[in-house]
Amino acid sequence: MTQYIIRRLLQMIPITLGILTLIFSLIHLIPGDPAAQIAGEGARPQDIENVRKALGLDEPLWKQYVTYLSNLARGDLGRSFRTNELVSTEIRERYPATMQLAFGAMLVALLVAFPLGIISAIYRNSWIDNVARFFALIGVSMPSFWFGPLLIIAFAINREWFPVSGREEGWRSLVLPSVTMGLALSAILTRMIRVSLAEELNQLYVTTAIAKGVSRTKAIFRHALKNAMIPVITVLALQFGSLLTGAIITEQIFSWPGLGRLLIQSIATRDYPQVQASILVIALTYIMVNFLADLLYGVADPRIKLE
Amino acid sequence: MNKTAKRLLRNFAFTAGLLLTVTLIVIALAAPLIAPRDPYQQDTSRRLEPPSREHILGLDDLGRDVFSRIVFGARVSLRVGFSVVFIASIIGVTLGAMAGYFGGWLDTLVMRLCDILLAFPGILLAIALVAVLGPSLNNVILALATIGWVGYARLVRGQVLKVREMEYVTAAKALGARSPRVILLHVLPNVINPVIVMATLGLAGAILAEASLSFLGLGVQPPIPSWGAMLTAGRRYLGLANHLAIFPGAAIMLAVMGLNFLGDGLIDALDPKYRKQLS
Questions:
Q1: Phi and psi (nearest 5°) for A86?
Q2: pLDDT along chain B (279 residues), means of 10
Q3: Which positions in chain B touch A279 (Cβ < 8 Å)?
Q4: What is the distance between the alpha carbons of residues B179 and B185, in angstroms, rounded to a whole number?
Q5: Is any Cβ of chain A less than 8 angstroms from the Cβ of B111?
Q6: Quick check: helix, strand or coil at residue A305?
Q7: The whole model's pTM is what?
């Protein structure tokens, strides 16, 4: 296991380096003179020079790259153009909000998908199974930037149960964004649990258990469900990564003060150090989560040879 | 009617998807004939008017006819969708076929590039690209094609690796056919079906991504009618004029659902084993 972890970590190095290079080169992709573009229209030559200096764009490319990497290694992500604060400060403030939203969405998905998926698998092709499948279909196709506003209309405007936006009202603020973001995931999970459990229920060991006098409920929950969980856990962990990118849109819908909203705000104000840092943090978290999902897969199913 | 066509039409998902998709394409092509009003014409004295007989989906924040804007919005969605799929599939199929056929350093290079792009959440990269290139229709297409080719490259490479060892390919080579001829005439026709399926699903993905980017203000710029951008504008008037957000969203969902059905139906009808290759 230790060997596997080390090997996977080593494999991550070139990929992470590739991503860092990609983010580094972003600023150089700005058409024309990046410094002039960032300084904005009507900027004086002096301002443009200041931007060039602040970003180190006056140095040779290789030197900029080395500086970028060594600053990163020291946790220095630069300073915001807008506030002149360290961008890491803002990111540290916003990060928990995004995580809270991601976990909220995951909780919603689990609460919906488990009962629905299990009932669907047990009563295959019954009306309740059809309802669950229809739900899964809608859930996957419904764009969050439409579902969110619909929820706002129904539960924040027509019925004032939850706030329209923001994060000030504790758990009440969390409900609508979590449901918005959790819908697609709950649809995917419901399908996954249904297929996975249905497959296990056909296995001989379940029939044997029932034949030997174990109650059907026990056979399903104690035996089949345990085995059915293996692929579900993996999907869940892998999907956590996509929740992070989903957060960019959901945070925008609900003015949720997380990383995604920070990213979009920084793009609007051309605050490139903040843009780069936000993208970097989201991307690195995504890679880390997928790495952990891989490990979890190995732990959940000892049969999987970690090659 | 041949066998495949019959099997396809018996498949509910495929038929429903085909119907929705054809409707979408017809609406986009015949937009000037279908739309009752000019999608840009403003009537600020009647802003935010709810649906009525005269304006079946109401008027927007500048007093423009929402129905006409949704009809013309289909053009934007499909233009982005088809352009992205076309560019991404050409690049992806070419690189994937070459990587699989020639192997060696080219294969390593292409596959490592794919690894990096896949490790990066797709929409995040698109946001980053549009952020530096500036928001516009063409930059959205460029950004989505930049992340879109990876899927095709991996799919085609895998297929080519298998086909490459087939006897008919060896025969073609033995008869003196050169590499481009072998790839084009003997290898590609045998790997094209899953590419078609991927392109159909990719069309849905591109339309959704365009709507997402436009929703974030990073896509098509006003006054061009884009469903995503219309939804953003509508979000400001929730509770006041809900029709502004509800109808463009419904259009996005129907379009995406139709294409997803079509792609899913194609997988089942053509060959269920594609499901494994595509995932």
A1: -65, 130
A2: 72 86 95 92 87 90 92 95 96 94 91 86 88 90 94 91 85 86 84 88 92 91 91 88 93 92 80 59
A3: 124, 127-128
A4: 10
A5: no
A6: coil
A7: 0.88
Residue contact A146–B234, C-beta within 8 A: no
Q: Does B50 touch chain A (CB under 8 A)?
A: no
CB-based contact B133 A31, cutoff 8 Å: yes
Helix (H, G, I), strand (E, B) or coil at B67: helix
Burial class (CB in 10 A: 0-12, 13-18, 19+), A137: middle
User: Residues of B with CB below 8 A from A290's CB?
Assistant: 119
Alpha-carbon dihedral angle through residues A246, A250, A255, A259, given to the nearest 10 degrees: -10
In angstroms, the CA A193 to CA A198 distance is 8
Q: Enumerate residues 6+ apart whose C-beta is below 8 A from B103.
A: none
Does the CB of B218 have a partner CB in chain A at under 8 Å?
Answer: yes
Backbone angles phi, psi at B35, to 5 degrees: -65, 125
Q: What is the ipTM of this complex?
A: 0.85
Q: Would you say A287 and B119 are in contact if contact means Cβ atoms under 8 Å apart?
A: yes
Of B112, B132, B238, the CB nearest to A153: B238
